[in-house]
């Protein structure tokens, strides 16, 4: 949700099954938008994202919603404290086949891993599990396009719309 536009969030949440009621959708959109305040924190945290190309091609909400989402990614990806990378579909290697996860490293070096799947979530606080996830994330980053190439790739996708 950190990289999603409000329109994309709404389109994505509207597709959930079982169907979410309007109040739940509103609560989740509000919560996701509030988390985006991390981009304006001072000092600015270092943020790194790797996204599979398939996510960038999904037209949730239609062509214009996707256009806005890709434009948002280009803007966020140009921030000095943000590294945005794309893992192309034609990549033969993908250490992220187990699904999405988030590694959070605090100022004191302590790491946590957060993962969501099929409506459930888990927070890994065990140092060994967190270190393993951080290592896996490093491998995923090495398999993805570098940030400059990734932004050019997103621009290309935007031109295809």
Explain how this protein is built.
This protein has helices spanning 6-14, 22-35, 53-57, 63-77, 127-143, 147-160, and strands spanning 47-52, 82-87, 102-105, 111-117, 120-124. With 161 residues, it is of the alpha+beta class. The chain has one domain (43-160). A three-stranded antiparallel beta sheet has the order 3-4-5, covered by helices on one side. A two-stranded parallel sheet has the order 1-2. The chain starts with 5 loop residues before the first helix and ends with a helix. The mean pLDDT is 94.
Summarize the structure.
The chain has six helices and five strands. It has helices at residues 6-14, 22-35, 53-57, 63-77, 127-143, 147-160, and strands at residues 47-52, 82-87, 102-105, 111-117, 120-124.
Mean pLDDT level: 94
Which regions are unreliable across 5 or more consecutive residues at pLDDT < 50? none
Radius of gyration over alpha carbons? Answer: 16 Å
Question: Looking at the structure, what is the overall shape?
Answer: globular
Query: How would you spell out the order of helices and strands?
Result: HHEHHEEEEHH
Going by helix content, strand content and strand pairing, the class is: alpha+beta
Total individual domains? 1
Strand content: 15-25%
Distance between the termini: 22 Å
List the strand order in the largest sheet. 3-4-5
Largest sheet: 3 strands, antiparallel
Helical residues, percent: 40-55%
Query: Could you tell me the number of beta strands?
Result: 5
